[in-house]
Amino acid sequence: MRVARRCYPSRWAQGSFVACCLSLCAASSLLSCPSLCKCNISSLQVDCSGRGLTSVPPNIPQDTRTLLLLNNRLSSISGKAFSNLSSLHRLDISNNFLDQLPSQLLSNLGNLTELRLRNNSIRSLDRDLLQGLPLLRRLDLSLNGLSQLPSGLFDDLPTLHWLTLRSNRLQNLDRVTFEPLSNLETIQLGDNPWECDCNLRDFKHWMEWFTYRGGKMDELQCTLPKDLRGRDIRMVPVEMFSYCSQLDDENSPGPSDKPGPPCTKASPAPLEPDPGLDCPQRQRYRPASVRRAIGTVIIAGVVCGVVCIMMVVAAAYGCIYASLMAKYQRELKKRQPLMGDAEGEQEEQRQISSVA
Ligand SMILES: *[C@@H]1O[C@H](CO)[C@@H](O)[C@H](O)[C@H]1NC(C)=O
Ligand SMILES: *[C@@H]1O[C@H](CO)[C@@H](O)[C@H](O)[C@H]1NC(C)=O
Ligand SMILES: *[C@@H]1O[C@H](CO)[C@@H](O)[C@H](O)[C@H]1NC(C)=O
Ligand SMILES: *[C@@H]1O[C@H](CO)[C@@H](O)[C@H](O)[C@H]1NC(C)=O
User: Fold this and answer.
1) Which strand (E) or helix (H) includes residue 40?
2) CA of 228 to the centre of ligand 4 (A)
3) Third-level CATH fold of 34-192
4) Whose Cα sits closest to atom 7 in ligand 2?
5) Staple 273 to which of 176, 267, 295, 338, CB 3.0 to 4.6 Å?
6) Mind listing the pLDDT tens digit for each residue in 236-260?
7) pTM of the model
């Protein structure tokens, strides 16, 4: 209202018509509320819960801090649905029917601190979905159909404190995926069909390290193998996994994967130590920073190699050119008419005689 009153006809005549209209349009888009939603101007909250929505309403005010889309019938979301909401702090899309999320869905939400996707039908996540969320603290992915997580999914979440993956279809997890979550305090992993075999061994080590540094986690009960069913994997002694290192060695006969001296040296006991379990960080475990460093080294190597080859080629070209020119000059001299040479000789003789 206040903005509209500023647009007096006299001013329009003075030429500020365009500027005034633009500001009016901008202001009205900030103040308007999507028809099916309730907007609280003071808390900048837009509540579109329980409206039977099948798509995200357009024109959500750009300065919205909290957007609630719970209990609707959303089965897909366009990649641009939230692209104007860079001020968004909390986003809750729980209790819908989402199964696939576009990889760029959250890419403009640099202020997001809380994301709730509980109770949907999400079966897989794009590796890049959570990139560009430097302030995210809480992430709820519980009650979905996730059977695995792409490695690299959590690489750029330095502030994540709380994560739940309860009630999915996870059978095992990769330690490398969770390694970058250096500020994680609570993780919930219960109610998944965990297979407590070699594939979960490295993740068991991560969980032990996580609880050792004060992290909280719920029960993680094995579903398979049968003799471990119902047991919490953290209570399963490491000796149960000692056969895994033998399997590793059989499966990868490469020389670099043999239990090397660094693993066996650590234990002074005369007993044969278990190389796989005493040394869980073998070659395969590489956190994001190491992977990036390796990439940099490879690129630097390639660039240096190319420069070296170019220098060698240039040097060879120079040498060949120089020798060809020398040869050419020699031949040119040989072919010169004898007259010129005779004159030269006469000249020399004259000089010699004058000196004498
Ligand atoms: C709007 O949000 C403020 C702060 O959270 C709250 O005190 C107020 O009751 C809300 N107003 C309405 C109409 O819900
Ligand atoms: C985002 O803002 C632009 C320009 O204000 C507008 O054209 C577009 O419709 C908005 N997108 C959504 C999804 O609201
Ligand atoms: C999950 O969402 C569906 C559909 O919105 C709802 O009917 C159901 O009660 C929800 N379940 C839980 C456990 O929240
Ligand atoms: C966070 O929100 C503010 C406005 O509330 C905005 O100016 C800023 O660009 C946002 N930051 C990011 C990283 O999107």
Assistant:
1) strand 38-40
2) 49
3) 3.80.10
4) 59
5) 267
6) 887 777 777 777 666 655 444 433 3
7) 0.68
